[in-house]
Amino acid sequence: MGRSSRRLLCIVTFAYVLGLIVLSILPSGKGVLGGWDQDISPTLQNALHVPAYALLVLLVTVTTSRTPTIGYGRILVIAVLCTAFATILESAQAYIPGRTASVTDAALNVIGVLVGAGLAIGWRGIVQRTQTSAAGESTE
Asked: Are 107 and 39 in contact (CB under 8 A)?
């Protein structure tokens, strides 16, 4: 990955993390910033937790990797850090007007992290198989 591509990926990942923070701490209900989420059904709001945190894991994994082959240990550390991040944001909602900290939301965040970690492991396997087959073709 080139330097400009890596820089762009870092910016996208940083913006995504900021977006998760902002959406998690915006007040709900009436008021200047409140009510932004009123048009989204609770079912859809809950469903969005899983892909949101799966994407977070994938972005952080790719952004922090210098090589296409990512170690399982790195994926595990990223999953633990993303789970802690999700837990902190969910806990903070208990102190925001119109928001509540939800065990269901926290569980959906963790499921999203696990899905993202699984996808990162799958991506790692695809990259390794591609590299192995390319190396095998070049030696024949």
From this structure: no
